[in-house]
């Protein structure tokens, strides 16, 4: 399968309603590398994950309730000088109030008391400052990638019409749905497909009961009442992506290693 996103190496008209991520928010990516029909996934996916990682470090991961992201130490690719494998692991945790079956799973409630009062929600534009909401037939305004809302609405329990990505909004369910969709549809390098992406960890979805800092008596990091914790389930969806890069010392560059298997 492949990611059914819309790519633009220059401004153009969107086919679908969606969220547009401009090339300026994709570290190291050039507009030409997002040309439709090319190896754009090899550039877009690692760059998007790096942008999330960098913004999380800037904002403070403790202020992004439910999100974790890591980049492992690069490992050398056997038999290929100056080539390295880079492993990004990103996870988004949401909550299901089992005591109220009329409410679907949603973002973990933010704290309502203590030092962490109202801390935890984040908008798409907190992670991608130049992101915009684009309607079908609307102009993107430049190069980038449009993520159709229709691909994420069911998992994220939102509609494009109601989606507000401006500062101060809570778009954690959008990110949850993005991770869920991408891990199941990302193409990997094969004998017939040139790609820098060599592996995606087996889909992982785990369940747990809220505990620890989330429900602490003083300064909890969530709005889940400690007495009600047994009635809640935390759902974590995880995506691990391995992408190869290759260094060019003469040019002082490092780029995705887009080759066949």
Q: Describe it for me?
A:
By secondary structure, the chain is α+β, with helices and mostly antiparallel strands. The protein contains 4 helices and 12 strands. The chain has one domain (6-256). Helices cover 16% and strands 27% of the residues. The strands form 2 sheets. Strands 3, 4, 5, 6, 9, 10, 11 and 12 form an 8-stranded antiparallel β-sheet that branches. β4 and β5 form a beta hairpin. The chain starts with 5 loop residues before the first strand and ends in a 5-residue tail after the last strand.
Secondary-structure-based class equals: alpha+beta
According to DSSP, the number of beta strands is 12
Broad shape: globular
Number of helices: 4
Strand content: 25-35%
From the N-terminal CA to the C-terminal CA, the straight-line distance is 17 Å
Radius of gyration based on Cα positions = 19 Å
Summed over residues and divided by their number, the pLDDT gives a mean of: 95
Number of domains: 1
Main sheet: strands, sense, barrel:
8 strands, antiparallel
Q: Return residue spans where pLDDT drops below 50 for at least 5 consecutive residues.
A: none
The residue fraction in helices comes out at 10-25%
N-to-C SSE string, H for helix and E for strand = EEHEEEEHEEHHEEEE
Quick summary of this structure?
This protein is α+β, with helices and mostly antiparallel strands. The chain has helices spanning 40-59, 124-127, 153-156, 172-185, and strands at residues 6-8, 18-22, 67-71, 75-76, 83-97, 106-107, 132-134, 144-148, 197-200, 204-208, 232-248, 253-256. The chain is built from four helices and twelve strands.
């Amino acid at each position: 399968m492949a990611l059914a996103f819309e790519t633009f190496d220059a401004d153009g008209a969107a086919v679908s309603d969606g969220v547009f991520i401009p090339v300026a928010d994709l570290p190291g990516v050039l507009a030409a590398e997002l040309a439709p029909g090319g190896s754009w996934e090899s550039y877009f996916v690692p760059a998007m994950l790096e942008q999330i990682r960098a913004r999380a470090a800037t904002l403070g991961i403790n202020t992004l309730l439910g999100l974790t992201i890591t980049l492992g130490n690069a490992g050398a690719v056997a038999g290929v000088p100056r080539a390295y494998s880079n492993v990004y692991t990103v996870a988004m945790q949401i909550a299901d109030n089992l005591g109220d079956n009329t409410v679907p799973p949603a973002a973990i409630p933010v704290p309502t008391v203590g030092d962490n009062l109202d801390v935890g929600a984040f908008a798409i534009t907190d992670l991608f400052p130049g992101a915009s909401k684009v309607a079908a037939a609307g102009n993107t305004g430049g190069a980038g990638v449009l993520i159709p809302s229709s691909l994420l609405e069911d998992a994220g329990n939102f509609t494009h019409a109601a989606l507000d990505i401006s500062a101060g909004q809570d778009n954690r369910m959008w990110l949850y749905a993005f991770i869920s969709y991408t891990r199941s549809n990302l193409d990997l390098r094969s004998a017939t497909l040139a790609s820098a992406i060599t592996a995606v960890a087996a889909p992982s979805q785990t369940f747990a009961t809220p505990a620890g800092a989330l429900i602490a008596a003083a300064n909890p990091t969530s709005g889940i009442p400690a007495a009600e914790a047994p009635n809640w389930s935390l759902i974590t969806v995880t995506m691990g992506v391995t992408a190869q890069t290759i260094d060019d010392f003469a040019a002082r560059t490092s780029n995705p290693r887009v080759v066949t298997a």
